[in-house]
Amino acid sequence: MIQTQLRWEDMARQKYETMIVKIPLFHRAIAKKVVDKKAVMNAQDRGSHLIEESDIIRAFFSEVPMSFYSLMIRLLDEVGFDYKKYEPK
């Protein structure tokens, strides 16, 4: 199977990179790895070749353990992600 490289929406990528550097160093590499992978999967599930803000937010909600939920919400808010409509109920 040939996998094509997906593009990232510029503003979404900037917010994401800003958020990643705010994550405590010990967890940063793990968060980046799992969120990068899941954001790509989310875009592909939508049939898109562009990773959008919604793909990133959904990736954080599905991949980051609930023990880090309050930190994640604070960081999503700090970098300007419009996350509220994607919060798990």
Question: What's the arrangement of secondary structure elements?
Answer:
Layout: E1 7-8, H1 10-22, H2 25-45, E2 50-51, H3 53-63, H4 69-79
Parallel strand pairs: 1-2
Describe the model.
The protein is mainly alpha-helical and 89 residues long. The protein has one domain. The chain has helices at 10-22, 25-45, 53-63, 69-79, and strands at 7-8, 50-51. Strands 1-2 form a two-stranded parallel sheet. α1 (10-22) packs across α4 (69-79) and α2 (25-45) crosses α3 (53-63). The longest helix has 21 residues, at 25-45. The N and C termini lie far apart (36 Å). The model has no long low-confidence stretch (mean pLDDT 92).
Question: What is the helix tally?
Answer: 4
- Summarize model confidence as the mean pLDDT: 92
Helix content: 55-70%
Largest sheet: 2 strands, parallel
Radius of gyration: 13 Å
Choose one word for the global shape.
globular
Counting DSSP E segments of at least 2 residues, the number of strands comes to 2
User: Which sequence of SSEs, written as H and E, runs from N to C?
Assistant: EHHEHH
Order of the strands making up the biggest sheet: 1-2
Could you name the ranges where pLDDT drops below 50 across 5 or more consecutive residues? none
Quickly give the structural class: mainly alpha
The amount of beta strand, in percent, is under 5%
Number of domains: 1
Question: How far is the N terminus from the C terminus?
Answer: 36 Å
